[in-house]
Amino acid sequence: MQQRKILLIALSAAILAACSKPDGETSFDAVITGGTVYDGSGGPGFVADIGIVDDRIAKIGDLSGAEAGILVDARGKAVSPGFINMLSWGALDLIIDGRGMSDLKQGVTLEVFGEGTSLGPTSPAMIQQIKELAGINIPFLPWRTLGQALWLMEKKGVSLNIASFVGGATIRMKHLGFVDRAPTADELAAMREDVRIAMEEGAMGLGTSLIYPPGFFASTEDLTALAEVVGEYGGLYTSHMRSEANALLEAIDEVIHISREAGVDANIYHLKAAGYQNWYKMDLALQKIEEARAEGLNITADMYMYVAAGTGLDSTLPPSSQEGGYSQLLAKIKNPKQREELILAMTTPDDSWEQMYLQAGGGEGIMVIDVESSEFGEYVGKTVAEIAEAKGTSEPDTILNILEAEGKRVFCIYFLMTEDNVVKQIRKPWVALNSDAGAPSDLAASLKSHPRGFGTFARLLAKYVRDDEVISLPDAVRRLTSLPADNLKLKDRGRLVEGAYADIVVFDAGTIQDHATFKQPNQFATGVEHVFVNGGHTLKNGEHNAVFEGRFVRGPGYQREG
Q1: Contacts of 140 (CB under 8 A, 6+ apart)
Q2: What is the pLDDT of residues 195-209, one digit of tens each?
């Protein structure tokens, strides 16, 4: 503790020395003047200036006499810490184009990857499996571990900070492939070692996605064994639970059990009660989580602001249908007898897996987004029910025909939730935010996304804070900043305090607005005017400023380079 105090004193002295001129005046690299500062604590806003030197906040107060290379007039605007996206699928987007405009224009300064799968650890066999599952041409990746991948992303240049959990499915895929069996003692030991390496390279913890294969095949005991390693380093276990529908409450019990037995903090990805028959369970789910918190377990959750989920059309089929890889699923679809078995499984109630077709109330609740084949390409944005009617086939047959023709997962929108439950979740002080989406910069991309990718964070501030007054602006900022930063155990991020990293957002609370819709998802949000990332003026007057100061933000167990 004494050493930490000495380091903080030294840091403060260095900052003051950097911004002091011999004549007593002060100068900064950048000054944000006159804004209403919401510092991330949840407290009321206050008018102040913020001075930045290098990558840090050097001074908060009255800087009217200061000089600066960059001056931002924030009068009448809100100034907050940069927002943290607790579940991003933006890694590949940022490798291709490091700007990340869909999130940057909403004020996001940190993308956190790793829901079930992660950029590492990898092997050549795994890359082939991922290519087959995703239906895209993934080149040979120039890394083998998660730390190496994130370090290379930083070196290439990204505008947003990046972090990641190590994916439980990725670990399993490396050692067991897509086989539905328990690991041997030696395999489990090797899996635990991979988790250990990832934690020491800077992973935030372990991320799982338990409704999809091969994550679905992992037992509670296997997950607890991996989470134990995470707990040793003070990391977080976060999970797309085994069920968000018929077995929602049992799935929450599993998360709580893993937290308790492994001695690890736990988080629930995109909390929801899916399927109209399960909507009543949200009250019970929230109660269950709060009872665990009262017990002393640090159980939290994150969410997005929509009544529809987004995932593959293959999620209408049991995970066992994909054992052995995606090619095996396509073979089953083409086999008449196995095809009949798939249709029966799709349409027969069964609580042992997430039956997305039934949860959505049938084909009317499933909007097909990512189709390109000559047979179905014209039906982008249509529901399965509409396509079935046009083709003269049953809805289950239509689903299988689409999967066979496309030869890939086929992204879809599933209308599963209720607005009442969205509001209930927002009101819980332990719920943070995520987009559960990529971070594209190109609006010219075809209609292959969910509006959450372009609107989640702005939607919270526009609809649920300003318009509907579900929560206050100071609390909303806290949910976007210090809450996730504390859950991730980040140092010097998530708050506007002197000495912290200068991840800062200037936005107009009166006009900030999401524009993405289910029919037109690729529309940037408006109202965020300036974003600083590690002191770099990354977004200027709402436009990218050709600044790439994003960094690989390492987790609490960091000890070694990747």
Answers
A1: 124, 127
A2: 999 999 999 999 999
